[in-house]
Amino acid sequence: MKLMGKVACVTGGAQGIGAAIATRFAEEGAYVAIADINSDGELERGLVARGLKATTVKMDVASEASVNSAFGVIQEKLGKLDILVNNAGIGTPVASILDTSPEDWERTLRINLTGTLMCTRAALRLMIPCKSGSILNISSNVGKRGVPLRSAYVASKWGMNGLTQTAALEVAQHGIRVNALLPGNVDTPHLTEVVQMHADADGKTFDEFSTMLKSLSPMNRYVELEEIGKVAVFLASDDSSAMTGQLINVSAGWIMY
Asked: Which one is catalytic: 6, 31, 144, 153?
C-alpha cells in the first residue's frame, strides 16, 4: 500500500472528485480526514465498514476560523498531517464577464483560491516541524487556457497553479512537495450541472453540448473519477518523490502542455 501510515486531509472530500480521492487514499492505507462543509458522514461510515480508516471533519474553506479549527481537530485526533489535498471548490457562475457580478467573482475566488491558501497555511504549520509532507492542489484544465462564460472559475484555477509553484519553491527546504492535478471534464453530478448551464447559454440541448465537449478530447470521452484517484495517489506518495511544482494534466488528452 502506497500510503500506509500516512494521515491525509481531503477538502471537499464528501462527494465527487474529493470522495474519489479520499476513497483511493484510504484503500492505499492512509487515515483520511474527510473535510467538508456539508457532510452527513456517509462516506466515512462506508469506508470504516470496509475496514478502512476515515473520519469526517467540518470545514468551510472560505472561513479562516473554520479552517484553523478543522486542522486543530485533525492534529488533536490524528496527531499529524502528511498529505493535504486542496479539492474544495465551486464551478459557477456560468456567465459572461459583463454579467458576472463582483459578488459572484469574489465568492468564487474566496472559495477556490483563498481557501486553498488558508488550508495550505494551516497544513504547513503541521508539516514544517516534521520536515516532510505532500500538498496536492486540484486545479483544472482551464488553468492553462481561457473558457467563455467562466471568467471567475478560470481565474481561480490560473491563480491556484501560480500558488502551487510558489509554494513549492518556498517549502522545498522543509522536505515538503507541492503539486497540482489538472482534471479535464470529469464525469460527476457537478459536470452535469455545468454542462446544462452551458447548453442553455448556447441554445443547445444537454446531449448536443455534452457530445461537443467530449469531442474536444482526442479520446472522445470524459475522465472517470477512478482515473483522478489513481494519479492523486501517485502525486501524494513517495512514487513522485522527485516531483514538486508540477501541473499534471489528467484530461483525456484535451490539454497536452
From this structure: 153
Tell me the pLDDT tens digit for each residue of 52-111. Answer: 999 999 999 999 999 999 999 999 999 999 999 999 999 888 999 999 999 999 999 999
Residue 157 is a catalytic residue: yes
CA 101 to CA 111: how far, in whole Å? Answer: 16
Spot the catalytic one: 6, 31, 144, 157.
157
pLDDT along the chain (257 residues), means of 10: 98 97 98 94 98 98 98 98 98 93 98 98 98 98 95 98 98 98 91 85 90 93 97 98 98 95
The one-character DSSP state at 131 is T
Residues 50 and 108: their CA atoms lie apart, in Å, by 36
Annotated catalytic, 153? yes
CA distance 94 to 231: 28
Give me the half-sphere count of Cα atoms (radius 13 Å) on the Cβ side of residue 212.
11
Cα dihedral 241, 112, 217, 251 in deg (nearest 10):
10
